[in-house]
Amino acid sequence: MDARRESELAPTKNRTTVERKSDRELVVTRTFNAPARIVFEAWTKPELFKQWWVPKSMGMFLRSCEMDVRVGGGYRLVFGHDASNPDEFFGRYVEVTPHSRLVWTNDEGGDGGPVTTVTFEEKGGKTLLVMHELYPSKEALDAAGTGSADATLETFAQLDELLVTLGASLGRS
Amino acid sequence: MVKYSRARLDASFCALGDATRRGVLEQLGRSDASITDLAEKFHMTLAGMMKHVGVLELAGLVTTEKVGRVRTCKLGTRRLEEETAWLEGHRQLWDSRFNELDKVVEKLKRKEKANGRKKRE
C-alpha cells in the first residue's frame, strides 16, 4: 500500500519539538538535512512555500499565496474552497536576512497580532530551524492555532453527531 | 498564518470522509486500542493505520499516547489534559508541515546537484 512505500522511501525523519516557552511564546524547532540557503528558499518563494505549508492531511485548500519577501513587504494566504467565504491570513515582513532570519507580523486579527520569527542556523550541511511566535497576551496564545476553542467545540459537536449516527447504524445491524 | 478556525473544520470533515477512519472512531468509542489492534481489525498495514490515525489526530478527533512500545489511541481530546492536547495539536501541525518541507528541500537539493554537474561539463 501507498503509505508503506512512502515510509520506506522517506529519508531519515528529524524530530519536531514544540515548547511553550512562556505564557506568550511558542517555540518550534526542527533540523533539515540541507544547507540554510535551500531551507530559506523554501520559506521565501511562494511557489515552494505553498507546496509544504498546507499538508494534504490537513484537508485544507490554499487558494492563493502571495509573498513579497523584503522588509515592509506583505504576504497574503487565502484558504477555502469557497471563493465567497475565504479564510485569509496576512501580514508584513519586518526583518529579512537571507539564509538566516525572517520576522513577520500576523495581522488578520487586527493590529497587535502575534509576531513570528524564524531563524535558520547551518551546521555541517544541516540546518537547525527555530520558529518563535510571540503573542500579545496569554489568552491570545491559548486560543491560537490548532487549539482554537471554537474549532474544538465544533469538532466535538461533529464527533457527537457522528457517534449518534454510528450508534444508530450499529443498533440496526 | 496563525489562526485556523474554519480551516480546522475542513480538516475534521476531511477526516470523517473516509469509511476506515469512521470505523476507527466507532471502534475507539467502544474502547481504547493500540495501532496494532486497529491495523489487525481493519486488515491494514501498521503504516496504513498510522496514516489514518494521524489524519484523525490532526482533526482533533483522536489522541494517541505512547507507553513503552505501544501507541494507544483514544477518542477525542477531552480525556487528555487540555494543555497537553493543545501542545500536541501544534506539534502535529508543524510536524506534518515540516515533513512536506523535507520533500521540497530534497527536490531543491537534487536540482542544485544537477545544475552543478551541468556547469562543470
Question: Which strand order does the major sheet of chain A show?
Answer: 1-2-8-7-6-5-4-3
Count the helices of chain B. How many? Answer: 5
Secondary structure class of chain B reads: mainly alpha
Kindly identify the CATH topology of the largest domain in chain A. Alpha-D-Glucose-1,6-Bisphosphate, Chain A, domain 4
Helix content of chain B: 55-70%
Largest sheet of chain A: 8 strands, antiparallel
Query: Can you write the helix and strand succession of chain A as a string?
Result: HEEHHEEEEEEHH
Low-confidence stretches of chain A: 1-10, 147-156
- Quote the distance from N terminus to C terminus of chain B: 43 Å
Kindly report the oligomeric state of this protein. heterodimer
Order of neighbouring strands in the sheet with most strands of chain B: 1-3-2
* Greatest interface: A-B, 71 and 60 residues
Count of all domains of chain A: 2
Stretches of chain B where pLDDT is under 50 for at least 5 consecutive residues are 1-5
Q: Class of the largest domain in chain A, according to the CATH hierarchy?
A: Alpha Beta
Shape verdict of chain B: elongated
From the alpha carbons, calculate the radius of gyration of chain A and give it in angstroms. 19 Å
What is the straight-line distance between the termini of chain A? 30 Å
Structure write-up:
The complex is a heterodimer of chains A (about 170) and B (about 120). By secondary structure, chain A is α+β, with helices and mostly antiparallel strands. Chain A has five helices and eight strands, in the order αββααββββββαα. Chain A is about 30% helix and about 35% strand. Mean pLDDT of chain A is about 80; it is low at about 1-10 and about 145-155. Chain A is globular. The longest helix of chain A has 24 residues, at about 150-170. The two termini of chain A are about 30 Å apart. Chain A folds into two domains: about 10-140, START domain (Alpha-D-Glucose-1,6-Bisphosphate, Chain A, domain 4); about 145-173. Residues about 1-5 of chain B have low confidence and may be disordered. Chain B has helices spanning about 5-15, 20-30, 35-40, 45-60, 80-120, and strands spanning about 35, 60-65, 70-75. Chain B has about 120 residues and is mainly alpha-helical. The relative contact order of chain B is 0.10. Chain B has two domains: about 1-80, Arc Repressor Mutant, subunit A (Orthogonal Bundle); about 80-120. In chain B, strands 1-3-2 form a three-stranded antiparallel beta sheet.
